[in-house]
Amino acid sequence: MDLVWFLIIGLIAGWLAGQFVKGGGFGLVGDLVVGVVGALIGGFLFRILGLSAYGFIGNLVVATVGAVVLLVIIRMIKRAK
What we know:
The protein has 81 residues and is an all-alpha fold. The protein has helices spanning 2-20, 27-49, 55-80.
């Protein structure tokens, strides 16, 4: 059941990140991938900064922050080419 929640949070976080960073989302699968990878990045960043989050909303915030960071990095790489 934890995997299902992780995927749900990843999907929502990917969609939210697409709304925050101009350019919109990437469709259902793309948002899921961005959200899941973003959750990993967000967890890493929060650990480095000594922050922690609990519960559904906390996990969603961490995943969304990570997904936004991921999208910003992707867009910077695309502009550099």
